[in-house]
Amino acid sequence: MLDTVRLYLDATLAVAFMAVLGIISGLIADGVTGDRVLALIVAGAVFLLTGAILIVRLWRITQRPALPLDPGI
After folding, report:
1. Maximum Cα–Cα distance for the chain, whole Å?
2. What angle separates helix 36-62 from helix 2-33, to the nearest 10 degrees?
3. Pick from 22, 33, 59, 72: most CB atoms within 10 A?
4. Structural contact between residues 26 and 46, judged by C-beta atoms closer than 8 angstroms
5. How far apart are CA 21 and CA 63, in angstroms?
6. Is the dihedral of CA 13, 19, 24, 25 positive or negative?
7. How far apart are CA 13 and CA 23, in angstroms?
8. pLDDT for 73 beyond 70
9. How many angstroms separate the CA atoms of 45 and 39, rounded?
10. What is the pLDDT of residues 7-65, one digit of tens each?
């Protein structure tokens, strides 16, 4: 039960982190260019890029070694 709650909490924090980075980058793009469509595209791209990076990090963390380590060495 607690593992499920922990999983949902981690997922919520990851999506919140992605959203915050997307919003901040969109606001910066809007301030620099003044084009709201471009700012929306930048915010969406940063949101998706952050999600892809987090998925790759999760995949790298959860990989098991191919061969077991030899404790005799």
Report:
1. 64
2. 150
3. 22
4. yes
5. 27
6. positive
7. 15
8. no
9. 10
10. 899 999 999 999 999 999 999 999 999 999 999 999 999 999 999 999 999 888 887 76
Rounded distance between C-alpha atoms, residue 23 and residue 43, angstroms:
6
Cut 0.90: pTM above it:
no
Contact at 8 Å (CB) between 43 and 23? yes
Q: How far is CA 64 from CA 10, 43, 59, 60, 73, in A?
A: 21, 34, 10, 9, 20
Half-sphere exposure of 36 (CA within 13 A, CB side): 0
DSSP secondary structure string, the chain?
-HHHHHHHHHHHHHHHHHHHHHHHHHHHHHHHH--HHHHHHHHHHHHHHHHHHHHHHHHHHHPPPSS---TT-
